[in-house]
Design brief:
InterPro entries: Ribosomal_uL4, Ribosomal_uL4-like, Ribosomal_uL4_dom_sf
Largest sheet: 4 strands, parallel
Family: Belongs to the universal ribosomal protein uL4 family.
Number of helices: 10
CATH class of one domain: Alpha Beta
Strand content: 5-15%
Radius of gyration: 31 Å
Protein name: Large ribosomal subunit protein uL4m
Strand order of the largest sheet: 3-6-4-5
CATH superfamily of one domain: Ribosomal protein L4/L1
GO molecular function, one term: structural constituent of ribosome
Number of strands: 6
Mean pLDDT: 76
Shape: globular
Structural class: alpha/beta
CATH architecture of one domain: 3-Layer(aba) Sandwich
Distance between the termini: 75 Å
Keywords: Ribonucleoprotein, Ribosomal protein
Low-confidence stretches: 12-41
Length: about 270
């Protein structure tokens, strides 16, 4: 008897809920049918699109104030000008796993504990006893570089540039031409700007001679070209100063258009 009463109550409650749901859905369908009339492309004077519509994401460009390596005049303030950066290159999502692939080879973590496993003592994964480990008494100097796919390396560059910009360690200047070759003047200017360990990246085929001579005796400064720039340099140096030509080269070779072109060539 009690089971029959419970079954009746359950059926009535389910029927009530179903009726309410049907009524609400019917009301929503009628209201949507009244409010949203079918659009006619002929009446609106529009041409009917061919094929499926594609969603295009609109990314806002990144703006940072310009800097000046040479001491500017009183009337000229380089911070009043802004450098426009490609968000695909300089605002990429931070992927620490990609940075690890591009920089680190092998971990120093001990594979298993020293005692209690019943097996022999073993250190890290670079032990020559393991398959894929280091080489015992191998030739010196030896390279621990690994071959990575080109797309992974390019993604690592974008992630490293974005991380350096997010940490406010990326500067853009008009030019890296330095008058003279005095290390003292270069050190004074870098201290005025508040730059610590700094890497200068030139977009020219060679680093300007004045900058190279003035910074060669300073351990906290280094120079390179944008063609020789790698992920390790971007991770190692807290401050990265590049000229406009270097920014244009990076946007051309790491930008979205370059990626699309390379994919098209590969598929063809």
């Amino acid at each position: 008897m009690l089971a029959a009463v419970r079954q009746k109550l359950g059926q009535s409650s389910r029927l009530t809920c179903r009726r309410l749901t049907t009524a609400s859905l019917a009301g929503a369908e009628s209201s949507s049918a009244v409010n949203s009339a079918p659009v006619s492309f002929s009446t609106q004077g529009l041409s009917k699109p061919e094929g499926p519509l594609k969603a295009v994401s609109i990314a806002q460009p990144v703006y940072i104030p310009m800097s000046s390596l040479i001491r500017p005049s009183k009337d000229d303030n380089p911070a009043d000008r802004l450098a426009t950066l490609d968000p695909f290159v300089f605002a990429a999502p931070i992927r620490r796993d990609i940075l690890h692939l591009c920089v680190v080879r092998g971990s120093g973590r001990k594979i298993r504990r020293q005692k209690g496993s019943g097996m022999a003592r073993l250190g890290d994964g670079q032990s020559p006893m393991l398959r894929g480990g280091g080489v015992a008494f191998g030739p010196r100097p030896r390279s621990f570089a690994t071959k990575l796919p080109r797309k992974v390396i390019e993604m690592g560059m974008r992630v490293a540039l974005s991380a350096r910009l997010k940490e406010r360690g990326l500067r853009v200047v008009e030019s890296l031409d330095w008058p003279g070759n005095k290390t003292k003047n270069m050190l004074q200017r870098v201290e005025e700007l508040g730059w610590g360990k700094t890497l200068f990246v030139s977009g020219q085929p060679d680093v300007p001679l004045g900058l190279q001579l003035a910074s060669s005796n300073l351990r906290r400064l280094d120079t390179t070209t944008v063609q020789e720039l790698n992920v390790y340099d971007l991770v190692k140096w807290p401050q990265v100063v590049m000229d406009v030509e270097a920014v244009e080269w990076l946007e051309k070779n790491l930008g979205k258009r370059a990626v699309v072109d390379s994919d098209g060539d590969a598929s063809a």
